[in-house]
């Protein structure tokens, strides 16, 4: 995870044009032509019609709730900086003896297919059926299908142009800090994003934060209170490079991250799953399949000390093992013949206590990152269905394994043996979650 200045995504050859449903064992062939894949071509019209707007997402969630006969409850748990509602779809009776799973998506506005997949999973679990009932008998599942509605709704030159960042201006004096206090390292001051197919950049002009850097493992941290108590200390943290960087937790400046933190504190999930997008890779020198998703189980590699309380946070070894088991189940669920559907890599190891999963894992929750290939600036239309399924299958596998108890028999060594990140094809540079 790097600051925005790297203005490109990792890209590699090969996209798939088919979709499958749960339980299918279809094998996909590599395409032999490039229109609509392996990624958007420079002159190609970039269409967002197949992706849900904020209004469409809200309407769909309310429709699912209405038709679920009480199986799904939709609640607003927060509001974005632009005033858009943040929704959580709750499935299960929240009985304390059940496992609790939190699934959240689209913390980056230009990473949309996790949202599309999550809505289909919400619908599947809320409409009943044997599999859904078996899961909800044992597992409570909460979905947050879109954390960054402002970046999702972003426009450029009067047209939809979803972006990674939130909409929020850094104003230290308004917060009670000295005027020269530096912004958090993940602040995008000019309001810019990669251009189509990662060709250069587009300056859309609305500043904002990378929300997936704005978390802290102290769920009770109130930055406004800390500023009121000691503005000089907060300013010092932000003004020093050794405390304002990716290896340190953030101070939770965004309403979206504060709201999600509060929700996590309320739910106390046993497992948290975050769906993102990434670039394109080839599986190996010998295996030229296009990598469909990457997985990651561990989000911090060093202990983190809160500068305010002095408390030291580190990942419990049992949480690390459980995280690896979850990712192992996900990986094995995708090994379906010699197809790109099962071409999975491990996401590069990171040390980010200020990421959503980093802060959550430091509090004792097992985690899984799913990185789907491509973003809205690089995705063609034909591949979207297949990629949604590629995300849905491992999530369902994890839910089923938690419900029937088979997760306990999963081998963490399977996760360790997942092929490492390799062989990017990169017209415009690197990208991460």
User: Low-confidence parts lasting 5 or more residues at pLDDT below 50?
Assistant: 1-37, 427-431
Helix content: 25-40%
Specify Rg, calculated over alpha carbons.
21 Å
Number of helical stretches of at least 4 residues: 12
Tell me the distance between the termini: 6 Å
Strand residues, percent: 15-25%
Name the helix and strand elements from N-terminus to C-terminus, one letter apiece.
Answer: HEEEHHEHEEHEEEEHHHEEEEHEHEHH
Structural class: alpha/beta
Outline type: globular
Which sheet architecture does the biggest sheet show? 8 strands, mixed
Characterization of this structure:
By secondary structure, the chain is α/β, with parallel strands linked by helices. Helices cover 28% and strands 16% of the residues. The protein has twelve helices and 16 strands. The strands form five sheets. An eight-stranded mixed β-sheet has the order 1-2-4-3-11-16-12-15. A two-stranded antiparallel sheet has the order 5-6. Strands 7-10 form a two-stranded antiparallel ribbon. A hairpin with a 6-residue loop joins strand 8 (192-194) and strand 9 (201-203). The termini are close together. Residues 1-37 and 427-431 have low confidence and may be disordered.
Summarize the topology:
Elements: H1 54-67, E1 72-79, E2 85-91, E3 99-105, H2 113-126, H3 130-138, E4 139-144, H4 149-152, E5 155-156, E6 159-160, H5 172-175, E7 187-188, E8 192-194, E9 201-203, E10 208-209, H6 223-229, H7 231-239, H8 255-267, E11 271-278, E12 293-296, E13 304-305, E14 312-313, H9 317-333, E15 344-346, H10 356-361, E16 366-373, H11 384-404, H12 412-416
Parallel strand pairs: 3-4, 3-11, 11-16, 12-15
Antiparallel strand pairs: 1-2, 2-4, 5-6, 7-10, 8-9, 12-16, 13-14
Helix pairs in contact: 1-2, 2-11, 3-11, 6-7, 9-11
């Amino acid at each position: 995870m790097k600051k925005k200045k790297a203005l490109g995504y990792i890209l590699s050859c090969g996209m798939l044009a088919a979709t499958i449903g749960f339980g299918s064992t279809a094998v996909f062939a590599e395409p032999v032509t490039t229109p609509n894949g392996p990624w958007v071509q420079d002159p190609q019209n970039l269409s967002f019609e197949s992706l849900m707007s904020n209004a469409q997402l809200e309407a769909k969630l309310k429709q699912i709730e209405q038709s679920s006969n009480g199986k799904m409850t939709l609640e607003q748990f927060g509001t974005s900086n632009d005033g858009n509602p943040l929704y959580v779809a709750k499935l299960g009776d929240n009985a304390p003896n059940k496992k609790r799973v939190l699934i959240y998506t689209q913390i980056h506005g230009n990473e949309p297919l996790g949202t599309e997949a999550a809505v289909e999973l919400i619908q599947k679990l809320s409409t009943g059926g044997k599999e859904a009932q078996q899961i909800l008998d044992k597992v409570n599942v909460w979905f947050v299908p879109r954390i960054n509605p402002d970046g999702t709704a972003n426009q450029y030159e009067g047209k939809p142009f979803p972006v990674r960042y939130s909409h929020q201006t850094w104003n230290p004096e308004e917060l009670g800090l000295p005027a020269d206090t530096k912004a958090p390292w993940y602040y995008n001051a000019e309001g810019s994003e990669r251009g189509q197919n990662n060709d250069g950049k587009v300056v859309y002009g609305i500043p904002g934060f990378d929300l997936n850097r704005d978390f802290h493992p102290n769920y009770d941290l109130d930055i406004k209170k800390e500023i009121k108590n000691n503005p000089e200390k907060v300013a010092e943290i932000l003004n020093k490079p050794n405390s304002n960087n990716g290896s340190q937790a953030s101070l939770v400046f965004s309403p979206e991250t504060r709201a999600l933190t509060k929700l996590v504190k309320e739910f106390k999930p046993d497992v948290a799953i975050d769906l993102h997008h990434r670039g394109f890779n080839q599986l190996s020198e010998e295996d030229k399949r296009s990598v469909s998703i990457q997985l990651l189980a561990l989000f911090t590699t060093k202990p983190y000390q809160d500068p305010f309380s002095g408390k030291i946070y580190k990942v419990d070894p049992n949480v690390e093992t459980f995280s690896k088991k979850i990712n192992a189940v996900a990986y094995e669920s995708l090994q379906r013949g010699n197809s790109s559907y099962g071409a999975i890599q491990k996401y590069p190891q990171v040390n980010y206590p200020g990421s959503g999963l980093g802060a959550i894992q430091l509090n004792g929750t097992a985690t899984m990152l799913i990185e789907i290939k491509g973003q809205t600036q690089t995705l063609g239309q034909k591949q979207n269905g297949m990629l949604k399924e590629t995300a849905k299958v491992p999530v369902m596998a994890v839910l089923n394994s938690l419900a029937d108890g088979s997760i306990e028999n999963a081998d963490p060594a399977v996760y360790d043996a997942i092929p490492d990140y390799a062989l990017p094809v990169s017209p415009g540079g690197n990208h991460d979650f």
